[in-house]
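Known limitations

Structure tokens in this collection are predictions and should be treated as such. Users comparing against experimental data should check residue numbering before alignment. To illustrate the layout, the record for Pyrroline-5-carboxylate reductase is reproduced below. The input appears on top and the generated tokens appear beneath it.
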Amino acid sequence: MNVLFIGYGRMGGALGDAWLRGGLVSHLNIVDPGLTPDPEQRRYAHLEEVPAERAFDLIVLAVKPAYASAALAGLNDRQCSQAVVVSVAAGVTERTLSNAVGQRSPVVRAMPNTPVLVGAGCTGLYASERLDTARRAIISGLFEAVGSAYWVAEEGLLDAVTAISGSGPAYYHLFSEALAEAGIKLGLDPQLARDLAAQTAFGAATLQHQPHANFTDLRIAVTSPNGTTAAAIDVFETQAKLRELVEAATYAAHRRSVELSNES
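Generated tokens:
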């Protein structure tokens, strides 16, 4: 598979490096506007240095959203002739991307989250009917190499994906941060409090990934009547405070994602 990356920062680099390690691709052509070409490795190049006659199978767009259209417009017909364009530029619509590439290639919008950096990502995917079944399966396999991948039937649902899994890691980090801070106030050493919070998050997530796991059942299994966990859960659930906060937070993220899409 002949792959071109336009942008190779944290997200682009995580994807490309994982695909190379997994043997899914054998070589990458990398263009990164923010990096100076390496004269020794020649790993990075300017777009004009990529052979004009080379036809790519996959073009990954991993630049800041403001640069997405201009980056695609710089490609020629040969480079796009058999390619699928996969964009991880948040908020840039399929129509905008398709217009930028001149309707020469089918476009996939991908919304991966930061755990792809450690192979535990969650990616929402959308493509129009222009993308055939065979190439859809290839795209699924590429993103499953860095975690899990899920297709949505409507592009607008990517805004919901963004609010849940795209932004979601930050929610869990915030909760872990608050839990560790509470542990420190209870007298624990800061490093111990941090380790307890992190390991507890990891263990809970592992349980949630067991076959047929049910979130409610898992919570109830830990919550003995009149016990310590029940005392804490009562605080979270008083007047549904935690649930209302989570709902309000995800609605805010969703609203902002829609705004960004409209701006593109």
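For this record: The chain has a mean pLDDT of 91. The CA atoms of residues 115 and 142 lie 15 Å apart. Please report discrepancies through the issue tracker.
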